[in-house]
Amino acid sequence: MNREATPYPCQRCGTCCEKGGPSLHREDRPLVDDGRIPARCLFTLRRGELARDNVRGTLAPLTEEIIKIKGHSGRWTCRFYDQANRRCGIYDHRPLECRVLNCRDTRRIEGVYETTRLTRQDLLSGVRGLWELIEDHEQRCSYEALHALVGEGIHKGRLKLEKKILEILRFDAHVRQLTVEKGGMDNRMLEFLFGRPLAETITMFEVKLVKKDQTYVLAPTSAFP
Ligand code: SF4
Questions:
Q1: Burial readout 17-31 (b: 16 or more C-beta within 10 A, e: otherwise)
Q2: Mapping DSSP to helix (H, G, I), strand (E, B) and coil, where does residue 37 land?
Q3: Domain residue extents for the chain
Q4: Whose CA is nearest to atom 5 of ligand 1?
Q5: Pocket mutation for ligand 1, best pick of 1, 16, 17 (most atoms within 8 Å of C-beta)
Q6: pTM, two decimal places
Q7: Tens digits of per-residue pLDDT, 162-217?
Q8: Cα(85) to centroid(ligand 1), Å
Q9: Position 160 confidence tier, pLDDT thresholds 50, 70, 90
Q10: Of 55, 170, 183, 215, which one has the fewest beta carbons inside 10 Å?
Q11: What does the pLDDT read at residue 7?
């Protein structure tokens, strides 16, 4: 869209780019296929993972996976945002959500936000071996399985089956390590291929991994009130 042709032209304040990179849609696939948005610049939020809905402003478990552009320097700011010059580094090829977003009239972004999201299956189901590994990981490390095992949470003394949860976390770490060390994969691809490490995202269940006597156990993220 021509920025100048909108009733509310973009002021280039950078606020939307600083809130995080866009989710990708099927319309964005050519940008990934031809490398204008390299897969190493993406990460996957998996089904069941707690994520912020930028349109509704809510935090909720995802019903379907989302592929997003990564942040940088430990922040959510889109990695293609050039903060010094307040410009998009891929402006002519920016993804759909960035093209339709107008922060003072959100009707167009609301219209596309949940439609035709790009998935790992769209991009990788033809890559034999790798896709089977992703499917296996998805099955063995699903957030649904973790949710069922964690139950009502450690705070209420109902954390169930800690051993099984730790096995899932170990498998998640093992697959990532194997994919790099044996498969020769660029480790910057891991968060796209397998989502964010479970050792980090397990905190969504209000538990965290802690080392105790040379082994890892689960502990509450905050003290019991
Ligand atoms: S792709 Fe460009 S316009 Fe979109 S969030 Fe990133 S920097 Fe901003």
A1: beebbbbbbeebeeb
A2: coil
A3: 3-120, 127-220
A4: 17
A5: 17
A6: 0.89
A7: 889 999 999 999 999 999 999 999 999 999 999 999 999 999 988 888 888 888 88
A8: 13
A9: low
A10: 215
A11: 61
Size of the chain in residues: 225
Pocket probe for ligand 1: among 98, 99, 101, 102, the residue whose CB has the most ligand atoms within 8 Å is 98
Helix (H) or strand (E) holding 44: strand 42-45
For tokens 């080392």, name the residue: 211
CA distance linking residue 141 with residue 193, whole number of Å? 13
In terms of Cβ atoms closer than 10 Å to its own Cβ (0-12, 13-18, 19+), residue 165 is buried
Residues 202 and 146: beta-carbon distance below 8 Å: yes
Residues with CB under 6 A from ligand 1: 17, 21-22, 69, 78, 80-81, 88, 90, 94-95, 98
Q: Where are the beta strands (DSSP E) in 75-145?
A: 75-78, 81-82, 87-88
Q: What is the number of the ligand 1 atom nearest to the C-alpha of 79?
A: 6
Q: Maximum Cα–Cα distance for the chain, whole Å?
A: 64
pLDDT exceeds cutoff 50 at 108: yes
* Sequence-distant (≥ 6) Cβ neighbours of residue 56 within 8 angstroms: none
Please state, in angstroms and as integers, the Cα–Cα distance from residue 168 to each residue in 47, 104, 149, 163, 203, following that order.
Answer: 16, 44, 10, 9, 14
Q: For position 6, what pLDDT does the model report? A: 58
